Amino acid sequence: MIRDAIIYLQVPPTYQRGSQKVSLKTQEKECTKWAIDNSYRVKKICQDDGFYNRKGLSEIIQGIEEGDTIIVYALNCLSRNTTECLNIIDEIRRKGASVYSITEKIDTESSMGKIMINMISSIAQFYPDDTSERIRTALKNKKENGLPVGKIPYGYCLDERTGRLKEDATEQIVIRLIQMKRKEKDEKGNPKSYRQITDELNREKIPPRPGTKKWYYASVYRILNRDPVILRPSEEEMTPKLLKGEESSETLTSM
Questions:
Q1: What CATH fold (topology level) applies to the domain 3-126?
Q2: pTM above threshold 0.70
Q3: Which of the two residues, 188 and 194, has the higher pLDDT score?
């Protein structure tokens, strides 16, 4: 019996064959060949050129009929996000259709395919939590070892030799000035607001970070409320000179 199939083409940025991404032309050739070899009649071919324009996929889902099979070159053609991909597959299955992936050889209509999808779904529910935990741990370790995390905070710069954060002498002076201004009182006897401090810095022409034209409220707020920046010496700085085979000036003097 000949069954109807719809081919969906999308170049997934994370899937490559060798060093080349699989082109839409190659995907169409592989999907069409599989359809013919397995007695399917290709009634439509839809494609999207990017993940931000999914008109082709939306057209397939809206016009899908019971018994149709959606053929894709790889599951991540449907979505780069595992959870979203599973949601799309679930929506297709609810309409009485199925999905077949050439690369993973998963047929959501078969018993084995259903087991595979259930396994992927179970992993997807666990993996985001596991990933978040590992990211938090990695960032914490980087901070504790004085390594930069994200944007370098004001008052610090990157030591090109060690790759670690070090204090920027000029910006540290500005930080102390900002802290002093915060302790000052306004006309009503209250601590100066972040807005008042910002206006004063701009009036006094205190230079902001290079690349920034002026001081902003948010910048002053972050400087005064951020967590302390932990600086750690490098392994080279922590290693005594004598252990590195160098003699100290005291040793040479005493000889």
A1: Rossmann fold (3.40.50)
A2: no
A3: 194
